[in-house]
């Protein structure tokens, strides 16, 4: 497997998690009853769509097939969120906690991609690091929202 193929694999896998992020925030925007939170989740959904678009564009430039699916784990997680939120009555704090968990998964996915830094072109490493920083900022903001909801 050459470096280009390896980079494509890494990005395709990462993009499944970014697509999970899109679905997760779409889901959160539907569940929340707080208009400010709903607006924030929609912004994050759009940010995630932009990230996915950047990754797919890079994959295409390298000659790979774009990735539009989500992970099996993400589908299971959203199903579990549905059940949990039905029981909890769409508790705002539970929605925030679910999003925090989602960002923790995103951080792991970005770190996994960056573990292959040596095999990735420099522009790809920069894109992944930039997205990882945005995810980290989101994680910090969600933690603040969680503390405020206590």
Your description of this structure?
- The protein is mainly alpha-helical and 150 residues long.
- It has a single domain, classed as Ferritin (Up-down Bundle), CATH 1.20.1260.10.
- It contains five helices and no strands.
- It has helices at residues 3-31, 35-61, 72-88, 92-114, 122-149.
- Helix 2 runs antiparallel to helix 5 (122-149) and helix 4 (92-114) packs antiparallel against helix 5 (122-149).
- The longest helix has 29 residues, at 3-31.
- The chain starts with a helix and ends with a helix.
- The relative contact order is 0.17.
- Residues 7-115 form the DUF2383 domain.
Question: What is the element layout, followed by pairings?
Answer:
Blueprint lengths: L2 H29 L3 H27 L10 H17 L3 H23 L7 H28 L1
Organism: Pontibacter flavimaris
Pfam families: DUF2383
Protein name: DUF2383 domain-containing protein
- The oligomeric state of the chains shown is single chain
Bulk shape: elongated
- Give the beta-strand count: 0
Compute the CA-based radius of gyration. 16 Å
What count of domains describes the coordinates?
1
Structural class by SSE content: mainly alpha
Strand content: under 5%
CATH class bucket: Mainly Alpha
What's the pLDDT, averaged over the residues?
88
Assign the CATH architecture: Up-down Bundle
Could you spell the SSE succession in H and E letters? HHHHH
Domain DUF2383: 7-115
Protein name: DUF2383 domain-containing protein
Pfam families: DUF2383
Organism: Pontibacter flavimaris
């Amino acid at each position: 497997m050459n470096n280009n193929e390896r980079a494509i694999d890494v990005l395709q896998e990462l993009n499944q998690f970014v697509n999970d992020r899109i679905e997760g925030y779409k889901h959160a925007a539907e569940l929340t009853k707080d208009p400010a939170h709903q607006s924030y989740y929609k912004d994050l959904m759009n940010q995630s769509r932009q990230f996915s678009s950047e990754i797919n564009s890079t994959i295409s430039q390298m000659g790979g097939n774009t990735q539009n699916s989500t992970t099996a784990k993400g589908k299971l997680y959203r199903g579990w969120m549905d059940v949990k939120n039905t029981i909890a009555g769409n508790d705002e704090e539970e929605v925030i906690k679910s999003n925090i968990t989602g960002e923790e998964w995103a951080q792991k996915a970005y770190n996994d991609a960056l573990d292959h830094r040596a095999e990735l072109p420099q522009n790809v490493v920069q894109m992944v690091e930039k997205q990882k920083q945005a995810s980290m900022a989101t994680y910090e903001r969600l933690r603040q929202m969680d503390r405020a909801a206590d």
